[in-house]
Amino acid sequence: MQTLTEKVFTLAPPGGVFDETVVRNLFPESSPGARALLVHRAVRAGEILRLKPGVFVLDRPFRKTDPHPFALAAILHAPSHISLESALAHHGLIPEAIYQVSSVTVGRSREFSTPLGLFSFNRVPTRMPRAGVEAVAVAANAWAFVAGPLRAIADAVYINRSISWKQDGLGYLTESLRIEEEDLSLVDFGSLEDILESFQSRRVRTYLERLYGAIGHAA
């Protein structure tokens, strides 16, 4: 086992994920070049996986727990929150999304193809980025910001700019997003006011207002 791997394994970071700051703290007397060489050797030995520049994870035989994909997304690109199909699947409204973890950010859109999966981040500018979003415990010692169903719908409508209530109505939810019509009663509208205030898009606000008129009183 490489020296870096041994020390990180002993440290036991949640999910085996660590960054350059951890490496620097573990080897404070080493030069940046020497620390980079330690990382290179561990990666070449197949003991450490590089997720993105400066962010790493111990490979499965060397980590004590697996990183939760939602917590990993937060590390890859911040600030962000889990949304879209990933959030809707988390809430049991659609079948589990298995191809990628979808998040929303107020920063620029990004996509990371990592050894642990594909992670996408779509830009959705809002006044209050956490409107309709909750901190959720996704694993032991692991938390992630996850959009509630209503916020996930708002994010999806914003990103899919051709969608409008007048043209698509509930069909966008039941056909494109594959939400069963009877499951729409699970959508909580308690965060509606905050979400409406946060989004500047009139199209999104109109969609949510009409959605509330259609199902909100029954939800």
Features:
alpha+beta; 2 domains; Arc Repressor Mutant, subunit A; elongated; 219 residues; single chain; 21% strand
List the helices and strands and how they pair.
Layout: H1 3-11, E1 17-19, H2 20-26, H3 32-44, E2 48-52, E3 55-58, H4 69-76, E4 81-82, H5 84-90, E5 100-105, E6 110-114, E7 117-123, E8 133-139, E9 142-147, H6 149-159, H7 165-168, H8 171-176, H9 192-198, H10 202-216
Parallel strand pairs: 5-7
Antiparallel strand pairs: 1-3, 2-3, 4-5, 6-7, 8-9
What is the radius of gyration computed over CA atoms, rounded to a whole number of angstroms? Answer: 20 Å
> How many β-strand stretches?
9
Total number of helical segments? 10
Q: Give average pLDDT, whole number.
A: 94
Which strand order spans the largest sheet, edge to edge or round the barrel? 4-5-7-6
Low-confidence stretches: none
Main beta-sheet strand count, sense and barrel state: 4 strands, mixed
